[in-house]
Amino acid sequence: MTDSTTHEAAPHAGERPRVVLGVAGGIAAYKAAELLRRFTESGHDVTVVPTASALEFVGAPTWAALSGKEIATGVFENITEVPHVRLGQQADLVVVAPATANTLARAAHGLADDLLTNVLLTARCPVVFAPAMHTEMWEHPATVENVATLRRRGAIVIEPAEGRLTGKDTGKGRLPEPDEIFALCADVLARPRATADLTGRRVVVSAGGTREYLDPVRFLGNRSSGLQGYAIARSAAARGADVVLVAANVSLPDPAGVKVVRVETTAQLREEVVTAASGADAVVMAAAPADFRPTTVSDAKIKKATDGSAPVIELAQNPDILHEISHHRSRPGSVVVGFAAETGDETGTVLELARAKLARKGCDLLVVNDVSGGAVFGSPDNQAVILAADGAAVDVPAGSKSALAQVIWDLVVARLST
Question: Which of 208, 289, 308 is nearest to 251 (CA)?
Answer without folding.
Answer: 208
